[in-house]
Write the structure tokens for this entry.
Amino acid sequence: MTRQRATNESLHTEIRDIIHTMDKLRNELYEDFRPQIKMLEELQMKNPVMPWIKAKIQTIVSTNPWNFRVKLLQKKYNAAVKTISGEDVAVAELCPVIIP
């Protein structure tokens, strides 16, 4: 039992030393290739008030419930399907049932 315990402890110290060495090498490598931090120009939108487009919600994306797949209803979009976030959605007709 003590022999197995000594083996486990020696393996534990060896693994801990290897992890420590890898962390040190990773930090040194990051120091060599550290990206420069600089200020970016302010972004300007050409037209901040974009027109609203009618669409129907087809599905709610399962990985992120704040994303929706919508089908654009206007002819010029040719019934395209897009994934949009909840921030980009406005309700045209209120649903009679509201989930609390």
Q: What stands out?
A: Residues 23 and 29 are 10 Å apart (CA to CA). DSSP finds one helix and three strands in the chain. The longest helix spans residues 2-32. The longest strand covers residues 55-60.
